[in-house]
Amino acid sequence: MTASIIGVGLIGGSMALEVRHAHRADRIIGVDNNPDHAAQAVALGLVDECLPLDEAVRQSDMVIVATPVGTAVGLLPHILDIVPDACAVTDVGSTKAMICDAIRQHPRRSRFVASHPLAGTENSGPSAAFRGLFRDKLGILCELGLSAPDATECIRALYAALGMRLLFMEADEHDRHAAYVSHISHITSFVLATTVLEIEKSTATIFDLASTGFESTVRLAKSSPAMWTPIFIQNSRFVCEALDAYIKNITAFRDMVASGERESLTQTMEGANEIRRVLAGINGKQQRAQ
Known about the structure:
The protein is of the alpha/beta class.
């Protein structure tokens, strides 16, 4: 099998490492519009070579589009235009509805399997790629009724090679859940970092007073704006819905602090502690599935 990975950064590069390790491909081709990233991907052994997009796609059995979602929307129709008949195409975008809509009427829509591996770090580029990124994480496949069975099986096998559990849902359902459990976390981190940098003009003060709690909360603010801006824009409907709910709750919390409502604050935080039980249940479920 020849696999082409469009975008050899953290996600694409880490996928390349897993595909190589699992012997899922005899040849891995990289495509990247950043010449430095392309050279790094080859030097690091993530891919065997880097080629122009059309040349890579036309000789592939599997194509993984691992670009920012804004780029993926424009690339996928062209990729489906030129892909070999038996090739399976997937993407790894954090939004699904707009991507699926972009190729919904394409005559070769059945060669595409919409997917999203829920894994990542705040780092980017080929040097950030590593094996194990996807192990025991959740992978989501969307709109399988529109994908050919052999293409679906190819991408299922890919996610098995990554060591991921699979969940199936529709694109809108995916985007709504992603807004609440992923996208709003990044927004919170970006906004907190912005707030602190505005108020704490002395970076020395931040260095001296910042604890591990602050560092872990703003870790996501180191994420790539080039990747996250199109995610927020593409999923604006559900992101704004999540933000409205978040703003309502944080405003209520602020008002309780301002008015000294000790009992209400305690009850609110005790209610939030319920997330510990939920996360423990998720982790236990994952362990039992192994």
